[in-house]
Amino acid sequence: MIKYTESHEWLDADGTDVTVGITDFAAEELGEIVFIELPEVGAEVEAGTEVVVIESVKAASEIMAPVSGTVTAVNEELVDNPGLVNEDAKGTWFFRMTVADDAALDSFLDEDAYRARTGA
């Protein structure tokens, strides 16, 4: 089940396991991504707190934790090759987490609602 946040992250949820990345829209807005700082595996994160730092030739940005939970994996390949996000944002994940409450995922946008919001 793919969901989208208002801040342009995508969430691929399978029960309480969630994979997080950014949308094509976000990647285009950022431009060429040159640096990504990922969270530590095992980190406990609270919804709305900074989890990932992204730097591009245009700006610095961050990914906020969409829900509270525990980081279970990070995409280490992005540290050495952050441009992968520009090549395929929808197919490139940043981190995986186990959510504390999967009901929190109900508040996010489905694909139609996200497209209507962004015009993409």
What does this structure look like?
It is globular and about 35 Å long. It has a 6-stranded antiparallel beta sheet. A 3-stranded antiparallel beta sheet has the order 4-6-7. The protein has one domain (2-118): RNA polymerase II/Efflux pump adaptor protein, barrel-sandwich hybrid domain (OB fold (Dihydrolipoamide Acetyltransferase, E2P)). The two termini are 19 Å apart. It is built from 4 helices and 9 strands, in the order βββαβββββααβα. By secondary structure, the protein is an alpha+beta fold.
Topology overview:
Blueprint: E1 2-4, E2 9-14, E3 17-22, H1 24-30, E4 33-37, E5 44-45, E6 50-56, E7 60-64, E8 69-74, H2 77-80, H3 84-87, E9 95-99, H4 111-118
The profile of the biggest β sheet is: 6 strands, antiparallel
Task: List the total number of helices.
Answer: 4
Number of strands: 9
Helix/strand/pairing category: alpha+beta
Percentage of helical residues?
A: 10-25%
- Report the principal-axis shape: globular
CATH T-level topology: OB fold (Dihydrolipoamide Acetyltransferase, E2P)
What keyword list fits this structure?
alpha+beta, six-stranded antiparallel β-sheet, three-stranded antiparallel β-sheet, 4 helices, 9 strands
Brief summary:
The chain has helices at 24-30, 77-80, 84-87, 111-118; strands spanning 2-4, 9-14, 17-22, 33-37, 44-45, 50-56, 60-64, 69-74, 95-99.
